[in-house]
Hints:
The structure holds four protein chains of four kinds.
Chain A: H1 6-23, H2 29-53, E1 62-70, E2 75-81, H3 83-102, H4 110-129, H5 133-144, H6 147-154, H7 159-187, H8 195-198, H9 206-223, H10 232-239, H11 242-267, H12 269-295, H13 300-321, H14 324-355, H15 366-369, H16 371-384, H17 391-406, H18 408-433, H19 449-467, H20 469-480
Antiparallel strand pairs in A: 1-2
Chain C: H1 3-23, H2 28-52, E1 60-69, E2 72-80, H3 82-105, H4 112-130, H5 135-153, H6 160-191, H7 196-204, H8 211-228, H9 237-240, H10 246-255, H11 259-267, H12 269-273, H13 276-299, H14 303-323, H15 327-355, H16 360-365, H17 372-386, H18 392-403, H19 408-433, H20 459-474, H21 479-486, H22 495-517, H23 531-538, H24 543-591, H25 596-619
Helix pairs in contact in C: 1-2, 1-4, 2-3, 2-4, 3-4, 3-10, 3-15, 3-20, 3-21, 4-5, 5-6, 6-8, 8-11, 8-13, 10-14, 10-15, 11-14, 11-15, 13-14, 13-19, 13-23, 14-15, 14-18, 14-19, 15-17, 15-18, 15-20, 17-19, 17-20, 18-22, 19-22
Chain D: H1 3-23, H2 27-51, H3 56-88
Helix pairs in contact in D: 1-2, 2-3
Amino acid sequence: MSELPILSILLLCPLVAFLVTLVLPESKATAIKAVNAVAGLVTLVLSVIVWAQYDETAGGYQMVEDIPWVADLGIRYTVAVDGVSVVLTLLNAIVFFTGVLSMWTLEKRVKEFFAFMGLLVFGVFGVFISLDIFVFFFFYEVAVLPMYPLIAIWGSTRKEYSAMKLTLFLMVGSALLFPGLIALFVESGGQTWNLVALSEPGTFSEGFQIFVYPLLYVGFGILAGMWPFHSWSPIGHVAAPTAVSMLHAGVLMKLGAFGILRIAIGVLPLGAAYWAPTFAFMATVGIVYGAFVAMRQTDFKYVIGFSSVSHMGIVLLGLNTLGIDGTNGAVFQMFAHGVMTALFFSAVGFIYDQTHDRDIRHFGGLVGQIPVASSFFIVAALCGMGVPGFASFWAELLVFIEALRVFPLLGIAAIAGLIFTAAYILRVLGQAIFGPKNPDWDHLVEPTAWLTLPRIILIAVLLFFGFAPSVMLDMIGSVTGGK
Amino acid sequence: MSHPELFCPEFALLLGALLSFACAAIGTKARTAWLVSLAAAIITVGTSALALPYQGHPFATDIYAVDSFSQVLKLGISLALAFAIAISQRQDSTRASARTEVHFFFYLSALGMMMLVSATELLTLYIALELSAYGLYILAALHRRERLGSEAAAKYILFGAAASAISLYGISLIYGAAQTTYIPAIAASGGSPLLIAGVVLTLAGVLYKLAAFPVHSWAPDTYQGAPHEASTFLATASKVAAVGLLLRVLSMAGGNTEHLRTMLIVVAILSMSVGNLSALFQKDFKRLLGFSAVAHAGYLLLGLLSFSKLGAAAAIFYVLTYVPIVVCAFLVVAAVSHNGANPSIASLAGLYKRSPFLGLVLLVAMFGLAGIPPTPGLAGKWFLFSAVIDAGHLWLVLVAAVNATISLYYYLLVVKAAYLDPPGEYPDIKLSPTYSITAFVSVALVVFMGFYPAPIWSMASSAAAVLF
Amino acid sequence: MSSTSIGLVLLGAPLMAFFVALVVFRKNHLAAMMTVLLSGAATCASAVFLLATKGGTPAEQASRAWIHAGGTSIEFGILLDGKTLIMGTVVSVITLCVQVYSLSYMSHDPGRGRFFAFLALFEWAMLSFVYSPSLMQTFVFWELVGLSSFFLIGFWYRKPSAIAAAKKAFIMTRIGDVGLFIGLILLFQTAHTLDIQTLNTMSVATGNFDSGRIELITLLLFVGIVGKSAQFPLHTWLPDAMEGPTPVSALLHSATMVAAGVFLFARFHPLFMQAELTLTVVLCVATFTAVLSSTMAMVASDMKRVFAYSSISQLGFMLMGLGAGSLFAGYFHLTTHAIFKALLFLCAGAFIHEYGTNDTVAIGRAGARKLRVITLGLIIGGGALAGFPLLAGFFSKELIIHSLHDKPLFLAGAYLASFMTAYYTFRVIFLVVFPNQDSAVQVEEPPADSHDDHHSSSLPLHAPILLLTVGAIAVGWFGDSIASVLGLVAYHPSLPEMAPAIGVALGGILIAWFDFGRKSAPQTGFISKLAPLHTLFKNGWYLDVIYKKLFVGAAQAVAGLLFGTENHVLDKASDMLGQGTLTIGETTGKAQSGRLPLYIGLAALCFSGAIIALGLEMMR
Amino acid sequence: MTLEGALLLGLMLFSLGLYAVLARRNLIGILIGIELMLNAANINFLAFNYFIPTDPAVAQIIVLVVIGLAAAEAAIALAIILKLYRQRNSVDVDAMQLLRSTGAEASNE
């Protein structure tokens, strides 16, 4: 291979950051942060390069690297990107970089924090670019487990309980994936774990597909916050520290949706077609349910947590339409929701770091006291409501277009969910950000330039793709054929 | 004895045994005895590694096979031995009077285990089984708190002797059914019902070694009551030998595996479930590891009950990777232990601060046992599950995976204690160089095998190829 | 200059103003000046477009692909045809007027940088909405005007009532938006395009669409219109929206934004014309709304609320005209209404600003008529609204009434509504011009809109009022030009045709004179003699209360139910599962009792069981 | 005497031994039970060897070796039991309750 193995380099970046972090002494906190920030920046640059280098007209998997890993068993380290991976890789890099910057003020056990975070990011990158099922699952598990210490050590409200609950839920998902994924290998004749090869039509009988599909869908779906297996997610959000919430909602939940798209639907299209109405129904319930439950929450992060359930419902609904626009919209929504939720948590985290309070009833008129910090929250809220001008609008639009075609009733219900989405988001805005001033919080200060930078980046990304959605859709469309 | 070089690992062990016996006889200082036996153990590892490619039959009759199956497992046993002896540097859980002598029993038992994985004849096998057990019986009795040690040993030996008696009864039936004691010949004899009954009964002693249900109950008690290094050895070497033994015994059934498989499925499920569920409530770290060992016996059985090359390879791979992972766990036990007392989970509090490296070692151990990458635990489970699905038992994998989820709970509780709880009044821990090196080697092995399982897999695969 | 570059100025300038003002929002003066200047540029651009056109020139479109969906591309750009040219010019001119007015009106508000930023955002969104060549762009900016409306209503974010009003406005219009959105997607799936010109061409030729489908789609679009243009039953947000600063009420909530719904109807007039059922629904809703809101306007004491109800009613009028099939009547009324209603609000704002109260009676008693220019504006604007002959509203309303001539029921409704319009408009005028200090009327509401006690009657305040006053007199005479730009021929009703309407209007004025104008008038209005009716009207037919009880209550109840489900069922279930596992674990763990005979017994039991099972199996 | 008879004898001896293991409270008694079980296996070996014509040396060798192993095992077991007795003045099996799952940290008493 004469070309630079750019994907492997991208993958190694967080790993190198992890190792350097392990070597550096705890006392050099700034150096540790700097190392990770640099790693984040490098991954960001690399993923932009990957985006630029990816040939959208050719489509398919590109930048393939293929090395045998466990040769006897047909396991190969095969990494490559298609349009969807490119988008999600960029998302991960953005969230990683901004996450590191958002934790710039961290003082407690800095070394371990960034070590776990580097490991997590490493795993996420690995998932997005692997084509081999074993390698995919390997990275998948690498990405999931650091959540436990990250939440349990640096978290807040009921952190140990939440961390344990989150981990066990995700492992139950893995428990379903184990038989499902391995069955693919065995049923296909025990020769290859390669997703492309397994996706060949005719590899699996319809009966087998119908049998195995729910294992994979639910297994991945748990991580994607699928109703009714979502309850780990808001709890985890509430307990997690800022950057971890950002990663959790920003990229980790996307792993689940990505797994559904790439493996469950990609390899088992007949199974997907059989189960689509059922799972689309559950996704729609998730959309409406999440919005309603969010309406009653009093904790900032619970609201966002349930909004994630609702928004991920849109992703799952889009995937279950099995159509071009629906899939495009779902992937776009993964990206948009990732960035938006990162912004949300980043904004809330900033407020929480100063106040140690997240009860929306204790706040009021924050926009008068800290207009810049509040405006980050407002922007995220607008994006969450699907206001045009932000990326999520287009994503939701596409999903709804397809949903209304394929499942008219579910589509209407999902669109009606927008009303309740507006209701719960405006409730928070009206209660905490606007409204009469609460003098308790007069002492709050605006973010410094370093803390503003990550939020500005996130907003810029949201606006950019809100104004120029075709940049994104051309990339995603190179996979789905939606160009 | 036509080819003495085929015996090198055994010779190395014998040498170690003699040397440590000499130390004991002369009455050297415990430290000297330890150094001598460590050196011998390292030599054994080296010899075993060198002997990996050896093949042949050292005796005229076919009672003892040296092939890649036996050699791979011997390497595993010698590694376990070396790690256990390295851990025994800090012998403060061993009775003071026995500190010089203790190593001899390690060697004796290891020798029995090596014979065990090479034995291809029933009497040889039974002798090796007994030989490997005797050393362990004595080792178990040497805990510094004598009441603890003797109780652990008494339970271990009485239960063990009963199990081995059942086994012997089974062997007598096998002999009656096949009229020969050579395992390959028995396998070829066609698997009559009497033979299957014999194999089932023989399993008693074998599953006992593996610590699988229903002969698992000694494991938590003995792990808890034995000195740390003895528990380490028990948990690692014994498991490796048991896998080899089990594969040999099961191979006697010939093609008639249907009923055995059903039974093994039941045994595997019960081992996993009983082990994992019971571990949930344990407060004593060693006892928790004992139950975890029961659960892992269940996982190992998944590979064995597949009766396929893939399954056997997966089980061998699993047990080989299991050794350094468990060594990591017991290293933490030995290092944290104060005056030889068993550490409770609570006493791991603040380990991340008291000794950051030890904290990492514990993390690797727990993730490894739970099957979380980048440890080989994931690959091991993956291969085992592949074998099971290949054999057509999808739902069994589901059961096993749910079990793995349950196990994560108590492993995470340990991690929680080490990483979350404040150290309180527990003192900082200063690792001795030996411990640091041992820990480093085992962690490095674990992480290497986790990222790159291919070499171990090809070893395991070639070993399995001998039987299938 | 090509139309593309002018279009760039038209849409780019306000957007730039928004971003600049947002960045420098702390420097209020700079933000305000930038906004006004850039807004002036946009106004010029729209005027250039309008003046460059001649009647009946074919539509011009400049656009580029925005996104691909459904196998086709959706365009973003500008479309220049009669409807957009007129509406665009009206919007930009009134926006400029209001911005200039705000320079004075908001001059002492500490947050006016933000205020101008959102005005600019509104202008950008509204112009992009109006000039939109595709339904997708229409929808996008339809949403964005709603968003700017949210921010502007809630501009005084410390006031809970303002925030509540902003939320209410956003959510109620969003209910309509959901209908519009579904309609839009259905239309897209039916026609496979969202291009407005193509859609209209397609719908003119019958047979392109299934009629049932068209009725469904147009009904859904109408739901959106009902939300945005505050028609019954989604009208209740508009009166509350008066919590925003008065310039906002003038610009968004009377003249332009709320007219977006009407504009959308006009935009898709050919499509709506294909749907009989929808047209009937539209007429019913519009007529009912016009009457309903007029009754409320008759008794409201807050001057801004009177005009807000009046806006609802006039929007109903426009939709009646359009629904009856007369594009010109509706569109003409839309234009004239924008001007005179903006004028009325600016006048109201000036009074409120001066006297620190919203209450009409209080304003009158405070001597409001001393502000001559403003009082003049109020009288002219009010006359136009009431349909006083020869003023702007007169012509357009006549056309609407004429378009209803073959629908007696709706015609009766129109007469009733225009009678009440004349009555309540002149009620306000008389209360201001002839205050009766001795009347028994109590000032009901506390001062609301007074944000400071600064008084200004400077040029920025008066110039827009004067300009609009002139407009309110003159625009009525330009019906023919407007029709020609639209490519239509204006109808001129004859005097006998107009007589009943004139009579009704004058009758309304006369009764208003009797109740409020003449000396020693009671100034309470005839409605107050019918106490139950008065209470009913005063409380907006209790619709707010009903909605609150019914819909908000229901939503809250569902939320509560699901909240409980989450906490006590779903979350609890997983907790119980975990707890159950732990309990089993405790049992199996305790079974490890330390008793050796039990250990061996278990093993013996299992092995003998296995042998027996094996034996039984073999014997079979 | 037939093969069946001999095997039945072995089975009975084995069962008696097992019964002793399970029922005896005394550790020595348990040990003796185990010896009975081992000897039951020995009877089997010899019976098979006697009634089924194979190489006659095999079973005899096995039996002799097993007897030797049993003796060694008994020696170790007795040593451990003796030690236990010294500590507790009892060889009652129920006295061995130190190592059990109680939730308490037994080893750190």
